[in-house]
Amino acid sequence: MVRIAGVPALLRYRESPEAAGGHGTVLFYHGFGGTKERPEAYLAALAEAGFLAVSLDAVGHGERRYPDFEVIFDNERWDTEFEEVESHFLKVLDDTAAEVPAIIDDLLARGWARADRVGVAGRSLGGNIAFASVLADSRVRAAVSVVGSPEWTLPRPHSPHHHPGRFFPAAVLAQAAEFDEHCPPGEIGAFFAALEPWYAAEPTRIEYVEYRGVGHFLTPELNAESCRAMAAWFRRWLP
To answer: What's the pTM value of the predicted model, to 2 decimals?
Structure first.
């Protein structure tokens, strides 16, 4: 356990952080209500592929979980006071993404990253953060979202889906689910259609994958496939 730019983090690598970071460093963000320890399968896939995986507690989660988390995000309040509770959720996204530049700076200073080999990935809430991280720091060369969305659920001018022209040349992979009740595939697919003109010169830098017949919580087999696809994407696009 370490703190990177003050953020609680967990590292996974094969030899040493320095050696793995030479191949590429990937920040990974967990889902809503989770912790940096939760996405172990994704971290293992990244480490096995030779990368330094840096799993981070999102704002209000893990070691810095809000003491009143259950009150803020009470399911009944989410139904009866949607806009207020959803605003808290979006603040978690925005505040976590805003930390990415300082995290990259710290990793570079430690010799645990190279400026041309930084990626960000995440699942669910973490997938949303992966999209936002591309806008937060141009050093993010590749991003992978697993059942996450680029479109914030309340009107926000900084929502990533409003800014397709700011993503190139980052290589972006989205893995969606056909019946996802939390991150509908339609809005993700629409965003990738909006990206296409900006990637016309290098269309292989973006890819949208939709897993058929499943909702937000993928089957074990598709979870394993999403890990493989993520690792392959970073092997391809982190030079």
So the answer is: 0.97
